[in-house]
Amino acid sequence: MLPFVSEFIGTAILIIFGNGVVANVVLNKTKGQQSGWIVITFGWAMAVFIAVYIAAKGSGAHLNPAVSLSLALMGKMEWTQLPIYVIAQISGAMMGQVFVWLAYRDHFNVTENKDLILATFSTSPAIPNKFNNFISELIGTFIFILGVLFILAPSTSLGSLDALPVALLVFGIGLSLGGTTGYAINPARDLGPRIIHAIISIPHKGSSEWHYSWVPILGPLAGSALGTLVFQLLNL
Fold first, then answer.
1. Cβ distance 216 to 122 under 8 Å?
2. Helix (H), strand (E) at residue 165
3. How large is the C-alpha radius of gyration of the chain?
4. 103 near 205, Cβ under 8 Å?
C-alpha cells in the first residue's frame, strides 16, 4: 500500500509543480506570463527534485512508467508490481492536474488560445510529424533512463541527494531536446493530465488531441527499453 500512496502523491506533486509552471508562463494575466522556456524547464527540474525527495523513501520515487519499466527489465522490480506503480502514477498525475486547474481556474477562463490551454495539461509537437515526434521522445527518454541508472548505481549514488542530479538531468533534457515535443519523457505525466483535459469544462479548451497521445506513451517506453539495454551493455 505504501508504494502506491507514495507514487500517487509524488506524481501529483510532480504535476502540480511542473504543469503549474507551464500555466504560470502561458496563461493570460498571470504574474509569470511570457517569462519563457527557461522558466518552464527550471520549474520542471524543481518539480522532479521535490517529487523525488518526497517519494523516495516510500516507493523509490519512480514517478514515471518508463522508470518502472526499466527497473522491471533489469530485475530490480517484480513484474507484478509494475501495474500497481503505473496506476498510481497515472492517477496521481490526474489528481495533480486537478490542483493546477483549481489554482489557475480564473486564468484558464480568460485564456482563449486552445493550444496554450492544452500545453498546461499535456505535450504536443512544435512541428507535427508523428514519426519524428516519436523519435524525439525516444531519444529524450533514452538519455533520461541511461542517466538515471548511472546516477542510482551504487558506485555513483549520492543517497538521499540523488534527487538533485536527476533534476539537473531533466533540466538539461528540457533545454537541449525539449523544443520538439515538449519532452514528455514520462507516459503518466502526459496521459493523466490529458484525461483531465478531456473531462473538465474550460472555455475555449479545444481538442485533447488523442490522435497524438500514443507518441508520449510509446516513445518514452521505447526509450526506456533502449536506455536499459545500453546501461546493461556498458556494465557487463
1. yes
2. helix 163-177
3. 17
4. no
Enumerate the H helices of 37-159 as residue ranges.
37-59, 65-73, 82-103, 105-109, 114-119, 130-152
> Can you tell me the distance from the alpha carbon of 31 to that of 40, in angstroms, rounded to the nearest whole number?
14
- What are the pLDDT digits (tens) for 17-73? 999 999 999 999 999 999 999 999 999 999 999 999 999 999 999 999 999 999 999
8 Å CB contact between 184 and 127: no
Q: Where are the domains of the chain?
A: 2-234
**How much is the pTM?**
0.96
**Cell numbers at residue 155, please?**
558506485
The CA-to-CA distance between both ends of the chain, in Å, stands at 35
C-alpha cell at 111: 485564456
Name the CATH topology of 2-234. Glycerol uptake facilitator protein (1.20.1080)
